Amino acid sequence: MKKEISNFLKFAQEKGKIKEVEEAFQNYPVEEEWHQGKIENILCEEEETYTSYQIGDIVFVKDYKYENGKDGRNHLFVIIEQNNIAVPIENFGMLISSKIEKAKYETNVILRKDDKNNLKVDSIVKADVIYRILDNQILFKIGQVDIERVEEYKNTFYNYNR
């Protein structure tokens, strides 16, 4: 039995707010982030291997190939929705940025570093756009946020796009 696409994803699709992950790499240069796209700056211990990801996971997306053949840049995203109809599984995420000074914008939600999310610096979740991320574009998971936080990001998205 096929699962139906969620109401949240339908809403985002209708508003034209689901973008391909390469747009995040183009619009938010990794050189401006605290980790500068270097895996060694993010991982404290051996990376674990995951075969599937869950809503609330914070993931490191790497090795995307642009249409021109260049390598995409490394960025952190929080998974907010999934579509299990497609193979490989499509994850839908919001970009995480260390540009905390941009928290003043209504679509940016502060995400404080803690032992669960494993961020090294306080950051923001950019809740204005959703990016489509395939499992094979994810290099590893670094941590997670509670479902209540995911709902907060989604509500921010809804409120901004109504």
Number of helices: 4
Shape category: globular
Mean pLDDT metric? 80
* Order of helix and strand elements from N to C terminus: HEHHEEEEEEEH
Contiguous runs where pLDDT drops below 50 for at least 5 residues:
none
Structural class of the secondary structure composition? alpha+beta
Main β-sheet description: 8 strands, mixed
Q: Beta-strand level of the residues, as a percent range?
A: 25-35%
| CA(first)-CA(last) distance | 32 Å
What is the total tally of β strands? 8
Estimated radius of gyration: 15 Å
CATH architecture: Roll
What is the name of the CATH class?
A: Mainly Beta
- Output the CATH topology: SH3 type barrels
Number of structural domains: 1
Structural overview:
The chain has helices spanning about 5-15, 20-25, 40, 145-160; strands at about 20, 55-60, 75-85, 90-95, 110, 125, 130-135, 140-145. By secondary structure, the protein is an alpha+beta fold. It has one domain: SH3 type barrels, CATH 2.30.30.110. Strands 1, 2, 3, 4, 5, 6, 7 and 8 form an 8-stranded mixed beta sheet that branches. Strand 3 (about 75-85) and strand 4 form a beta hairpin. The longest helix is centred in the C-terminal third of the chain and has 15 residues, at about 145-160. The N and C termini lie far apart (about 30 Å). The model has no long low-confidence stretch (mean pLDDT about 80).
